[in-house]
Amino acid sequence: MTRVYVAAGSNVDAVCNLRLAAQELQRSFGKVDFSPAYRNAAVGFEGEDFINYVAGFDTPCSVDEVINELQRIEGLCGRTRDAPKWAPRRMDLDILLYGDLITERPGLVLPRPDLLRRPYMLGPLADIAGEHVHPTAGETIAALWARFDHAAHAMTRVALGLADRGSAEAG
Questions:
Q1: Which terminus has fewer CB within 10 Å in the chain: N or C?
Q2: Does pTM surpass 0.70?
């Protein structure tokens, strides 16, 4: 079994799509731990605020099988594969960490390089995996988050009602 952490984000019908994604992640992978959800400004384009959380689960699936399942879930939320990169999103599911796998190939770089630069990925990950050691940085996620410039990109906690689904989210 491999422990996988996935960032989920949406700024189009975000609450509905994030709840649907959470439900589908549980359907596909069983027990899933959810971080609290956070609202933050769009990055890279002008648009509605995003809501983001991180999900963690154990799976026997290969990284490619996980990617295929995440893309299926994105599709259920209305995302098309030809959507522009820096634009509003109905759903964005990105693998942050797949165990301790370090890889770089077309379409996949792990650990996700912007994890250490994006508070809406690193902060929620620290909420549920603070003691996990980042495979390339060699430090715990909590230590990396403690040094992060939190004021540079404000995040506000949002209750999505995922706490009853085995998450770390509190009301």
A1: C
A2: yes
